[in-house]
Amino acid sequence: MPARKPLISGNWKMNLNHFEATSTLDKLRYLLTKDDYEAVDVSVHAPFTDIRTVQTFLESEKVSISIGAQNCHWETNGAFTGEIAPGMLAKLNVAYVIVGHSERREIFGETDIEVARKVTAVFANGMTPILCCGETLAEREGEATHGKVTGQVHAGIDALSAEQVAAMVIAYEPIWAIGTGRTASSEDAQQVCAWIRAKVAEMKGADAAAAVRIQYGGSVKGTNAAELMAQPDIDGALVGGAALDADEFARIVQYRLA
Ligand code: PEP
């Protein structure tokens, strides 16, 4: 089984219009090197209105950053005002789609069933889902972390083949660590990521578990990335706030140089 290549993903959320997106990518173009792209896969998850611009920039400048989206609908087309179909993203060469981010679940009421439909739809359109899971502070304090994460992962991968699970990405993001400046300790993050991998093994077999990439997300910065990434079951990071600053995001991508 080849080693898992880490994936560092910048989730821009509802930030950076298409002009700002271009200037951020232009900085990253100079900051990141061929060695970085050999060591780490990198994706940026732009707002929908930026994606065409991001695609044009990355392809014309031959920058090895993958194009990402933050969400999509599960249907192919139809009367779903305000939604974006996965096929529309695939047409823009989107490679990775974040599915079931805690902000989608908590603010927009996305359920495990909807998240599972989205995961399936992303695969059906030739893209890779990044399935998010994670517990609230109350759940962590109530020792309900494992139950919450197991339920979300189970729902998200149940309908998938072992090969699909091997090819996907799971992001463990404790909700209390998102945008708060509070990072899970590298031991706690490792412990939950190892738990997720064990659940994947139970459900889809050892090969799928050994291959699936598991990211940690929650206040990742240039100063804590190396320690988190040194954990054996952490295969990358899903980065929110720090991804808006090209210098800081580059420091995270270059964690191995720290
Ligand atoms: C996120 O929203 O996925 C995230 C991890 O945000 P932040 O890095 O700002 O905590």
TrEMBL record:
Q: Give the pathway listed in the UniProt entry for this protein.
A: Carbohydrate degradation; glycolysis; D-glyceraldehyde 3-phosphate from glycerone phosphate: step 1/1
* Record organism: freshwater metagenome
Coiled coil location? none
User: This chain belongs to which protein, by name?
Assistant: triose-phosphate isomerase
Picking any one GO molecular function of the record gives:
triose-phosphate isomerase activity
Keywords, alphabetical:
Cytoplasm, Gluconeogenesis, Glycolysis, Isomerase
The processes (GO biological process) annotated in the record are:
gluconeogenesis; glyceraldehyde-3-phosphate biosynthetic process; glycerol catabolic process; glycolytic process
Instruction: State the top-level EC class.
Output: isomerase
Can you quote a single GO CC term?
cytosol
